[in-house]
Design a protein that fits this description.
Elements (H helix, E strand, L loop, with lengths): L1 E5 L5 H11 L4 E4 L11 E4 L4 H4 L7 E4 L5 H4 L4 H4 L5 E2 L6 H17 L2 H9 L16 E4 L5 H9 L5 E5 L9 E4 L4 H5 L4 E4 L13 H5 L5 E5 L8 H10 L2 E6 L19 E3 L9 H16 L15
Parallel strand pairs: 1-2, 1-3, 3-4, 4-5, 6-7, 6-9, 7-8, 9-10, 10-11, 11-12
The structure holds NADP nicotinamide-adenine-dinucleotide phosphate and glyoxylic acid (GLV).
NADP nicotinamide-adenine-dinucleotide phosphate (NAP) binds next to strand 7.
Length: 312
């Protein structure tokens, strides 16, 4: 079995080693323009160039080394290049726990006013701020998939009131759920902490805009851990300027790395992290991909095949 690997930003050798450890008989190589004609059965990729796929004649599947497959689905001419070839994304693979940690940390930082206490320490000031009233902190989680459902459950575990929104109806313990565009406004009403864990699709691009943010309670908080393209950046800046939003924690950006000089870097109400809310864990992910390859080779169904018409 032949496997081509490509990832521009991630360390290649640990991936090659982990895939080889899980699939000892496979011939695995890192893609380069010089090796482009070498034929593979499977591609394991992050943000691949379209030139990787053009010469391939017998690909059986493309494995995306992330939960969101948008960087594969958005390559030019993808429908022609990958006609009939399944694109498979990671299912959790250790990311949901990281994401739950990240979102809870961002939530507590705002609700328990840790930034304020840090400022007090700098001034050697001993001062108790009012206790948290959770009833005033309705949390709304957009996306209730492998990661969003875990995030919503983790937040609910700390007794916050939690709503969740997905495309199709869901039943989750301790979460009030909403589904579809028709229930979006009801989901937003009373929400004070909006958490985005959606995939990037034509239906969700730009969804964090003035209309959406304007429907939140005054002094709301935005936590975006999904994709930068979900956010209309100028709308966020305008809402922070009026005070309708009290703060934002952003892990993902339209341009990554976030360019130097970008207004978000030094904004007093914005916390920036470099797309680390849930880091792809090489060993867990390689093991999951290998298990799916073995299943495909023996004609078994696999989880995580992207529905190209939905875009996730
Ligand atoms: P998933 O399992 O596919 O879940 C996606 C969820 O979004 C589902 O609940 C789905 O609804 C919902 N959804 C999709 N389109 C929608 C729409 N138009 N309206 C309402 N709900 C919609 O994905 P996942 O594994 O949880 O990952 C979610 C995203 O997290 C990824 O796509 C990626 O963008 C992001 N991510 C970021 C990082 C990071 O480090 N920042 C790491 C990993 C993932 P249904 O349940 O009805 O299908
Ligand atoms: C990372 O952003 C992922 O989609 O896994």
């Amino acid at each position: 079995m032949k496997i081509v690997f490509y990832s521009p930003g991630k360390k290649v050798q640990p991936w090659l080693d982990s895939l080889a450890a899980n699939l000892p008989s496979a011939d695995i190589w890192a893609w380069s323009p010089q090796s482009a004609d070498q034929q593979a059965d499977y591609a394991v990729v992050w943000a691949p160039p379209s030139e990787l796929f053009a010469p391939q004649q017998k690909l059986k599947a493309v494995f995306n080394i992330g939960a969101g497959a948008d960087r594969v689905l958005r390559i030019p001419h993808v429908d022609g290049l990958l006609r009939g070839i399944p694109v498979v994304r990671l299912n959790d693979a250790g990311m949901s726990a990281q994401m739950a940690e990240y979102v809870c940390h961002a939530l507590f930082r705002h609700t328990r006013e840790f930034a304020e206490y840090e400022a007090h320490q700098r001034d050697n000031k001993w001062k108790t701020l009012p206790a948290l009233d959770r009833a005033n902190w309705q949390v709304g989680v957009m996306g209730l998939g492998a990661i969003g459902a875990r995030v919503a459950g983790a937040v609910a575990g700390f007794d916050f009131p939690v709503k969740g929104w997905s495309r199709t109806p869901k039943e989750l313990a301790n979460i009030t759920t909403y589904a579809g565009a028709e229930q979006f406004d009801a989901f937003l009403a009373d929400t004070r902490v909006l958490v985005c864990v959606l995939p990037l699709t034509p239906a969700t691009e730009g969804i964090l805009n003035a209309r959406t943010l304007g429907r939140l309670k005054p002094k709301s908080i935005l936590i975006n851990v999904a994709r930068g393209e979900h956010l209309v950046e100028d709308d966020l800046l305008a809402m922070l300027a009026t005070g309708h939003l009290a703060g934002a924690t952003l892990d993902v950006f339209r341009e990554e790395p976030l360019p130097s000089g970008h207004e978000f870097w030094d904004h007093p109400k914005i916390t920036v992290t470099p797309h680390i809310a849930a880091i792809t864990l090489v060993e867990k992910s390689a093991a999951q991909i290998a298990q799916k390859i073995r299943a495909m080779e023996s004609g078994q169904p696999i989880e995580g095949v992207v529905d190209r018409s939905r875009g996730y």
